[in-house]
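Input record (one chain):
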Amino acid sequence: MEETLGRKDRIIMKLLHYFITERNYNPILLQGVDNEIWLENMDDQYKIIRIVSNHIHNDEQLNFDSFKTSRIVRKIKKKTFSFKMNVLSIYIDLGDNAHLDNIKSMDCMYLYDEQDIKNYSFIDHVFPDIKDKLKFTEKGLQLFIKITNDINSKNKTEAEKMEEVFKKKKPVITTILIVLNLLIFFGGNILGIYEELLNKYCIYGPFIRDYQEYYRLVTGVFLHGNFAHLLINCYSLYIIGSQLESFLGKKKYLIIYLFAGIIGSLTSITFGEYASVGASGAIFGLLGSLLYFGYHYRVYLGNAMKSQIIPLLILNLIAGFMIPGIDYFGHIGGLIGGTLITVALGIKYKSTQFEKINGWIVTILFTLFMIYMGILLPR
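The corresponding structure, as predicted from the sequence alone:
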């Protein structure tokens, strides 16, 4: 039974079992890479782990392997928007003339078997339980079956999580917000009271500060200056909001929308001089939230972030500065507010409790600062 697994297969399967089931690493599919297994976890200290099974005879082959790895890692960094990417290469078959000490671009280990881990003290700081987790009572076919079943179970669980996050859901809240904006605009115009609504409910600093009309911070988000303004915002809300509501869920999505709208209003009355209306601040908040979500799931959304999310954000910011009459202060405030509240609320399966607590602290402090600047600071 023991002969069913060779030395290489045994150590590779044990390593895969540890990194996938214990450390939440996921395999990376790479074209043109043979006899290597690449694993990624963007939330661990080593974002990339390579398990190299082909025989490397000497330093020349080892240096070429390091060069090839660096090129692939650069591509992964661009795709995942990572500035720094620590890589651990685990070699299973090294010749006597191959010296890992010469490799400076990444951390390296040579494991003839799992007992060799004791030769690399730096691993204890990153993976303190790896020595114990590589010990199995099963041998041969039983070891193969156990490891295979555990990895398959873990992969199934992770696939179910991704299915839950990325499965397309009906944009109920987005639809309600769009309908509400349309009803207010067309209903007000049909009844001939829309100008009165603009005067009474727009975002206007002096009335908010002097007459405590704080409701304007919210009501102004649901008003629009003209039909073109309404059409652009409703279209943007449909495109961006539908995705974000599906990713984050209805409750978080609505909180982000309203909070970003309020922070956009506070920023507008703090730095702007005129009355303003529109959902643009809230929509920019959704963009910031989508960017934060995309960063956490950048392995899955890296291409979309580069080709859609970031260009859309940049173009809208530039348009805010270049086109007269646009309240770009509200845009920037909404962007910041939407991002901060998303950090506080957290991204499912990604955010830690520590990150969420820090997010709430920063969000509350920023909100208090904007309230002071926009409302309480004497003019």
